Predict the structure.
Amino acid sequence: MASAPVVTSASAAPLNPNELKFPSAWPCPPPEGEIQKAADSEGATSFTAYDGELYWSNGRSIWRQREGEKPTVLLKAVTAFPLTELYAQGDDLFILAKKSFGATCSGSVHVVPRKGGKVATVMTGKCPESIAANASHIAVVVRTPHPEGGGWESGNLHLLERGSGKPAVKVGEDAVGIGSGVAMLKDRVFLEPSAGQVHSVLLARPNRFDAVANSSLLRFAFGYQDLRLIATNGSDTVFYYGSGSSDGGPRLFKVDAKGGDPQALASFSDIERPRPPGMNLAVSEKYAYLTHPNSGYVLRAALSGKCGGEFFAKERGNPDWVHVMNGWVYWLDRDRGTIWRRHE
């Protein structure tokens, strides 16, 4: 049985998120250039962009398209489970698949070379919720359905060594209310082990959970809502707080990878809390991007903290799966079956 993780706190001083000052929208420059169609992706439900290539899936097959070229089918009928997420890193494309059966859920995780080749199954018999990877490891958040249905009882983090053929290793014990957000740096994983908590786990000591932000603030800010969205650009970790417009609207906070109190990046006070699917977060060197399906917006906030949130794209149907690649921001419009892009 896995041992319980050791948890450390980033700060003992409680903070009230409503006392944090969010910057105004000035003087950040407005987005430049027109919104362009990057690909036709009819029926697509998941999408990722990496190293000059676009990948999308309709839940069964996967397409690949090089920028400026026509799409080709990368894979057909990967598994009997619907494909729910694509994640590219290095030479590989990772595939999450799952299906709920009443109060139970089952799924699998697969990997295939991005240029095509044999599909390898790296996890089965679990309910994979989200995935991240670096050059050496794969991190998968796994959910455990409530035995009586109607909600998720608990979840946990699984780590796999890439290319080793070894089975996934569960990190620590199950956490009630675990969020689905996960991101990775070279030496660590970021996740939400319980509602409103953001921790990092060093790969060298996976049973030690280190809080990367003031836990008192996070408990106050997020309440019982799942965080769900964590993203990193390699130096900054951006995490998202989604609330109703009556208590501040969607908010974006930033915290350094090594810890410390969060910095308020943006507050969209006139926007209602989004409903999944469609919430997705991406981070570049300068900005954080958030899709908001209720309103059809793609939102942007500067990581510098010198200016606040702004609308990067409006009236875009049902935007989802936002990614930044080669100076372009890409997102999937589920309603229109199209992948769009715009310069940062």
Observations:
- Residues 17-343 form a domain with the Methylamine Dehydrogenase; Chain H fold (CATH 2.130.10.10).
- Confidence is low (pLDDT under 50) at residues 1-17, 215-226.
- DSSP finds one helix and 29 strands in the chain.
- The CA atoms of residues 212 and 259 lie 4 Å apart.
